[in-house]
Amino acid sequence: MEKSPVDLAARHILPTLALCVFVNIVDRTNVGIAALNMRADIGLSASAYGMGAGLFYIGFFFAGVPANLLLARIGARRWIAALLVAWGLIAIATGFISDAGSFYAVRLALGIAEAGFVPAIVYYLAQWFDRRAMSKVMGLMIAMMPASLAIGAPLTTGLLMAVDWRWLFIIEGAPAFLVAILVLKSLPERIDDVPWLSDDQKKALSARLMADGAHRQAGSWRDALTHPQVLLLSLQYFCIGLSSQAIIFWFPQIIRSTGMSTLESGLFSTVPWVLAALLTPLWAWHSASTNERYWHAILPCLASGAITIAGALLLDDSALSGLLLLSLGVALSSMASASYWAIPRVHVFGAAAAAAGALTNSFGNLAGFVAPVAVGISKDMTGEFRLVLILLAMPAFLAALCSTFAGRMADPVDRRSIP
Predict the structure, then answer these.
(1) DSSP string spanning 59-87?
(2) Alpha helices per DSSP H over 115-130
């Protein structure tokens, strides 16, 4: 039986993009485990570390929209390869920092270099997959993020036990150059370029995408940046990310504060990402199978907020139970993100879609600045993590409300099970 053009596109495109995501996530987050030794070596306080970890997302915020306005001119394939080279160089440079100032500089630069990556992936995939397929594809790509952390955390921990933390950054930064070459050689720019689709399959895939966009709003990037729904979705993404971003950069240190060793802390830090990697694709598959997006974003937001608060409250009395609940809270945030990412492109396309993706990604990722900075300041002031984790979990309830209102702004054809 002949495979559909959508299945063929997924088979030829997704493995390379998944490898890009793996390298991206490792280079972005390995500082969380490296900090177990790095902070003492260069004299970083908790507040200084939190500031440096968070500055990544300030660069991310300011570079996101302008970076992605270049997408249509440069082409997604070349743009993704260029970003890989840029952040690989900066990731390696992290191995040469000597104080808080140089730490701040490389984290800010890394954020600028990585700002265009996720929207570029979303924009590229939208050239190949319609809305129905996009839910499944984005579920897989979102699942690759926690899967990358689940694989990367033990690798990074092993490297930290074997070599100095400086070499850790150098070793883990270098593969970005090889992946950039792979992107240029293996990713096609357009449907018409590929040898693995017949002429009839190319026409069928193009027709499917055109039909998918027929009812949606075309527009300029200015339209997207002022669209009420795009702004609301940006706020939603910000709220979804607060607690999970705190965990990404602080979880190894939260774990060690319960009495575990450096090795145990690094290895246990994989638990949230293993859970997320298992649950997220199942949730995305169910969303795609039922063609329902909004409840699939709302329910995990509500559960994530409640479970993260419960986990934080248990940290002192039952550390293991608290850590496991915090891990589950992160997995639920990942499930919400998988459904969330299918929403923005339903309502706009073309230049407006690129700008909408860039804005929601950039603004939403400001949570990555607020969360680690807040944790660092709170740790220096109170000596514990519990209170700030509770405060950062509460906006998840607002995220659920945002999804409800975003659904009511949809075009009639897209209103499915809106609460």
Answers:
(1) HHHHHHHHHHHTHHHH-HHHHHHHHHHHH
(2) 117-126
Which range of residues forms the domain containing residue 194? Answer: 5-414
Q: 419 lies in a domain?
A: no
Return per-residue pLDDT of the chain as tens, 419 residues: 457 877 888 888 899 999 999 999 999 889 989 999 999 999 999 999 999 988 998 988 888 778 777 777 788 889 999 999 999 999 999 999 999 999 999 999 999 998 888 878 888 888 888 777 776 787 678 778 888 988 998 999 999 999 999 999 999 999 999 999 999 998 887 887 788 877 888 887 777 777 765 445 555 556 666 677 777 888 888 888 888 888 888 888 899 888 888 888 888 888 998 998 888 888 877 887 787 777 888 899 999 999 999 999 998 888 899 999 999 998 998 888 877 766 544 455 555 666 666 677 677 778 888 888 999 999 889 888 888 899 999 988 988 888 777 666 655 434 444 44
22 found inside a domain? yes
C-alpha torsion sign, points 134, 139, 141, 142: positive
* Alpha helices (runs of H) in 197-293, residue ranges in sequence order: 199-213, 221-225, 228-256, 262-268, 271-290
SS3 217: strand
The residues, any chain, with a CB within 8 Å of residue 211's CB and separated by 6 or more, are 130
Phi, psi of 218 (to 5 degrees): -80, 160
- 271 falls within a domain: yes
User: In angstroms, what CA-CA distances link 256 with 80, 233, 309?
Assistant: 36, 35, 20
> DSSP states of 130-157 as a string?
-HHHHHHHHHHHHHHHHHHHHHHHHHHH
Taking the chain, what is the end-to-end CA distance rounded to the nearest angstrom? Answer: 40
Quote the tokens at residue 412: 């009639």
Q: Are 176 and 84 in contact (CB under 8 A)?
A: yes
Which letter does DSSP use for residue 227 in this model? -
pTM of the predicted model as reported, rounded to 2 decimal places:
0.78
User: Which class for 382: exposed (0-12), middle (13-18), buried (19 or more C-beta within 10 A)?
Assistant: exposed
CA distance 305 to 244: 10
Q: What kind and span of H or E run contains 218?
A: strand 217-218
Q: What is the CATH number of the domain that holds 62?
A: 1.20.1250.20
Q: Give the chain's domain count.
A: 1
Cα 404 to Cα 302: distance, rounded to the nearest angstrom: 12
